[in-house]
Amino acid sequence: MKYVIIGASAAGINGAENLRALDKDAEITLISEDTAIYSRCILHHYIGNMRDVEGINFVDKDFFEKNMINWIKGKAVTSLDETAKLITLDDGNTISYDKLLIATGSRPFFPPIENIHGKKNVVGLKSLNDCDTILTLSKTAKNIVVVGAGLIGMDAVVGLLHNKDVHAKISLIEMADRLLPLQLDKEASSAYEEKLIEGKVDIYFNSKVTKLNPNPENDLEINSLELENSEVNTRIDADLIIVCAGVRANVEFLKNTTVQYDKRGLIFNKKGETNVKDIYGAGDVSGRGTIWSVAVKNGIVATSNMANVHRVMDDFFFEKSTMNFFDIPTLSLGCISSFDKFENLKIETMKDSKGVYKKIAHKDGHIYGAIIQGDLAYTGVLTQLIRLYIDISKIKKSVFNIDYSDFFNINSSLEFKYED
Ligand SMILES: Cc1cc2nc3c(=O)[nH]c(=O)nc-3n(C[C@H](O)[C@H](O)[C@H](O)COP(=O)(O)OP(=O)(O)OC[C@H]3O[C@@H](n4cnc5c(N)ncnc54)[C@H](O)[C@@H]3O)c2cc1C
Q1: Which residue has the CA at smallest separation from atom 28 of ligand 1?
Q2: Is residue 360 located within the same domain as residue 296?
Q3: Which residue from 144, 295, 325, 409 could staple onto 283, CB 3.0 to 4.6 Å apart?
Q4: Whole-angstrom Cα distance, residue 370 to residue 393?
Q5: 226 lines ligand 1 (CB under 6 A)
Q6: Nearest CA to ligand 1 atom 5
Q7: Rounded distance, CA 123 to CA 332, Å?
Q8: Phi first, then psi: what are they for 46, rounded to 5°?
């Protein structure tokens, strides 16, 4: 059996390793545009000069030899012929497959802003190449602007603040009224805001970049940008702009095929199967549930089915983010940003003298989401309550004090029941 996997990251690498474990004789080829294996989740350590390429690698040095995987690196797949079962690379070479896994992930999205494309000092944050550009330009930059204060934008700012070679003024621009608007409320955001202000970062909330201004002496470079907010329009000097305004799935090479994808990304079922026989998908390329752990699981599930070992994505994955910027740990569960759309949702909050902040949203006995910041000890219980959709209405104590003894009691028919 000849397996080809496109993508050498969370989904592709874990998928390839799983295939080898399940099929000792298979021919496995892994293709990636990337020339190194690394975790994107810790790219900020690389930007911060805290780790080198080896330090962010997540496989053993002999991974490819040990697993007898042929890795074609630094090559992009440009097209697919699903009838002939053939893929074409950017160097014109073709590779045939019996079964194919598409694990091409995503790339930074550049919003439609005048002059955003084709400039040397406007970069996203997704790959090691992006980081190398950031590291080179940030050494001499006087003004660095990060556009977007989501998880990736925060990684960019935190990485730069750690880097002792960076002496630039850093500005962070966000359309919402807080940091990490998909994960945090104002209160939780403020803990990180304080740290950014201590680090002399200028934060612009409720602000939108409307235009990038090219350097009159070199129009391949930007030297400032225009900001619009409800009060005033501002111009900010910028000699490095890091755009962290979302991502788009890498599905372009599927354009002339019958493989189905939508605006978010590749469509595949719980077994990882696409609509085309022998073509599977895994990870961020779906545009859904785009976190590392989901990509890993997707890769393992899809490759199991490719090797005829039945597995499904049976986990209940809800929106879940953990972060630890400036050593302040935070867990965000559920879709915090859409809480106001739920009718009759009861939201309870508490903050103790040590700054530990908890917010839990529940309705009809079920928890829909939470923010826990400062001390994550309670998050194990919370995750189980949400994951298992446990009814807490019979527990007569504060929602912040529920513990395992209140519900982890299983009766003879293996149903959860409460302590009397
Ligand atoms: C800065 C940053 C920080 C993050 N932090 C976190 C975090 O803290 N926690 C968390 O859970 N998640 C985090 N994520 C998200 C996480 O990294 C992704 O969910 C995960 O990397 C997805 O893995 P993947 O294998 O699906 O795709 P990707 O990691 O996107 O990898 C795609 C692979 O496909 C290759 N490829 C793409 N197109 C082609 C092509 N046409 N031909 C050949 N190869 C191609 C690429 O070279 C790459 O090897 C972060 C992401 C970023 C960018």
Answers
A1: 105
A2: no
A3: 295
A4: 17
A5: no
A6: 41
A7: 28
A8: -70, -45
> Distance from the CA of 275 to the center of ligand 1, in angstroms?
23
Q: State whether 288 and 387 are in the same domain.
A: no
Please state the atom number of ligand 1 nearest to the C-alpha of residue 152: 1
Domain count, the chain: 3
Q: From the CA of 229, how far away is ligand 1's center (Å)?
A: 32
CATH number at residue 135: 3.50.50.60
Whole-number Å distance between alpha carbons of 299 and 30:
13
The pair phi, psi for residue 243, each rounded to 5°, is: -95, 115
Q: Which atom, in ligand 1's list, is nearest to the CA of 43? A: 1
Question: What number does the ligand 1 atom closest to the CA of 34 have?
Answer: 47
Q: What is the domain range of residue 51? A: 2-107+248-306
CA–CA separation, 233 and 257 (whole Å): 46
Hunting for tokens 């079920």 — which residue is that?
Answer: 366
Is this model's pTM higher than 0.70 or not? yes
Q: DSSP 3-state assignment of 377?
A: helix
pLDDT tens for the chain, 420 residues long, are 999 999 999 999 999 999 999 999 999 999 999 999 999 999 999 999 999 999 999 999 999 999 999 999 999 999 999 999 999 999 999 999 999 999 999 999 999 999 999 999 999 999 999 999 999 999 999 999 999 999 999 999 999 999 999 999 999 999 999 999 989 999 999 999 999 999 999 999 999 999 999 999 998 999 999 999 867 789 999 999 999 999 999 999 999 999 999 999 999 999 999 999 999 999 999 998 788 988 999 999 999 999 999 999 876 555 788 899 999 999 998 777 667 667 788 889 999 999 899 999 988 888 888 999 999 988 888 888 887 778 888 777 888 888 877 766 656 555 555 544
- Give the list of residues 6+ apart from residue 392 with CB closer than 8 angstroms, or none: 362, 365, 366, 367, 385, 399, 402, 407
- Tokens encoding 13: 């690498």
Kindly give the distance from the C-alpha atom of residue 12 to the centroid of ligand 1, in angstroms, as a whole number.
10
